[in-house]
Write a structure and sequence with these properties.
The N and C termini lie far apart (about 155 Å). About 40% of the residues lie in helices and about 10% in strands. The protein is elongated. It has two domains: about 70 residues; about 190 residues, 2-Layer Sandwich (Muramoyl-pentapeptide Carboxypeptidase, domain 2), CATH 3.30.1380.10. It contains nine helices and nine strands. The strands form three sheets. A five-stranded mixed beta sheet has the order 4-6-7-9-8. Strands 1-2 form a two-stranded parallel ribbon. It has about 300 residues and is an alpha/beta fold. Pfam families: VanY (PF02557). Keywords: Carboxypeptidase, Hydrolase, Membrane, Protease, Transmembrane, Transmembrane helix. This is Serine-type D-Ala-D-Ala carboxypeptidase.
Length: about 300
C-alpha cells in the first residue's frame, strides 16, 4: 500500500514538472511565430513595385480608396458675353421721341423723292404732291371703297411688286396712302384723345401735321389677308411682312422706321410703313448699310 502511494506521488511530481516546462515553451514558440509573420509581411510589402498596386477604375472602392477620396469633378463655367447695342440705335436715349425746340422747313421740294421729312424738318401746310392717282390702279388691293391715293411715279413699281408677291403666294393690301396736312392733323388728334392727352406716348407712334411722310404721297402702309388687312405689329411675322422686308427695296420701297433705330427716327418700329425713293436710290441705300433717315441726311 505504501509502495503504491509513493509511485503515484512520483508520477504527480513528473506531470507538474512537465506542465511547468511545456507551457513556457509553447508561449515562446507562439511569440516567435507571430514576430516572424509580421517581419515577412512588412518586408514583403516594401518590395512591391508601383505596377503591382491595383489601379481603381471609376466607381470602384476598397479600403485604400476610403482613406483618400476620389476628387470631385468641378462644373465648367462658361463666360456669357452680353452684346452691346450700338449707341445710335434703340430707345436708350432719354426722350428719343421728342421734337426739337427749333423746327425747320424742308430743304427740298416735297416732290423730290429724297426730301427729308422728320421731327426736325416739316412740310408746308399748303403742300400737295403732284400727280396723285388711286393706289388700286396698280392692281393692289385697297381696304376702302374710295381707295387711297399715291403719286403716279409710284404706281408701276408698286404693280410689279404686287405681281411678284402674288407669284410668291401672298395677298398684299394697301391700307393707307396719301394724307393731307389737315387729314394728318385729325389722325394725330385722334391718338392724343385715345391716349388721354399723353403727348409723350403719341409722339412715339404718330407724326404731327407737316411731319408725316404720308403727306408726300410716296409713303404707304401695307397689310395682307393673313391678318385680315389689319394695321399693327402682327404684320411683322406674316409671310407678307417677311417677304417685303427682304424684297421691297428691289422695287424702290424701303422701310422708314426700322427696328432698333428708334433713337434716330424718333418713332417706334413700324414693319408695315414703307416709302418709295426709286429703285436706284433704294439699291444704293441698302448696299451702304444705313437706314433711310441717315441716307436722306447725307443727300
Amino acid at each position: 500500500m505504501e509502495i503504491t502511494l509513493n509511485r503515484e506521488s512520483k508520477e504527480r511530481r513528473i506531470g507538474i514538472l512537465f506542465i511547468r516546462l511545456f507551457i513556457p515553451l509553447l508561449l515562446l514558440f507562439t511569440v516567435l511565430s507571430v514576430g516572424l509573420w509580421k517581419y515577412s509581411y512588412i518586408f514583403g510589402r516594401s518590395n512591391e513595385t508601383e505596377k503591382d498596386v491595383p489601379v481603381l477604375k471609376v466607381g470602384e472602392r476598397n479600403e485604400t480608396s476610403l482613406l483618400k477620396p476620389l476628387p470631385i469633378p468641378q462644373p465648367s463655367i462658361k463666360k456669357i458675353v452680353v452684346p452691346v447695342a450700338p449707341k445710335s440705335a434703340g430707345t436708350s436715349t432719354a426722350g428719343w421721341w421728342k421734337y426739337p425746340n427749333v423746327i425747320k422747313e424742308t430743304t427740298r421740294s416735297g416732290d423730290d423723292l429724297l426730301v427729308l421729312v422728320n421731327k426736325e424738318y416739316r412740310l408746308p401746310s399748303t403742300y400737295v404732291p403732284a400727280g396723285l392717282v388711286y393706289a388700286n390702279t396698280s392692281g393692289i388691293r385697297v381696304t376702302t371703297k374710295a381707295s387711297y391715293m399715291l403719286r403716279s411715279i409710284v404706281i408701276e413699281d408698286l404693280r410689279e411688286l404686287n405681281n411678284d408677291a402674288k407669284k410668291a403666294g401672298l395677298n398684299l393690301s394697301v391700307i393707307s396712302g396719301y394724307r393731307s396736312y389737315a387729314a394728318q392733323s385729325g389722325t394725330y388728334n385722334y391718338w392724343v384723345n385715345y391716349n388721354g392727352g399723353n403727348y409723350d406716348v403719341v409722339d412715339q407712334i404718330s407724326a404731327r401735321p407737316g411731319h408725316s411722310q404720308h403727306q408726300l404721297g410716296t409713303a404707304m402702309d401695307f397689310s395682307s389677308s393673313e391678318i385680315g388687312d389689319r394695321l399693327g405689329s402682327e404684320f411683322t411675322d406674316t409671310k407678307a411682312g417677311k417677304w417685303l422686308a427682304a424684297n421691297a427695296w428691289k422695287y424702290g420701297f424701303v422701310i422708314s422706321y426700322p427696328k432698333g433705330w428708334e433713337a434716330v427716327t424718333g418713332y417706334t418700329y413700324e414693319s408695315w410703313h414703307y416709302r418709295y425713293i426709286g429703285r436706284e436710290n433704294a439699291k444704293e441705300m441698302v448696299e451702304s448699310g444705313i437706314i433711310l433717315e441717315d441716307y436722306l441726311k447725307n443727300k
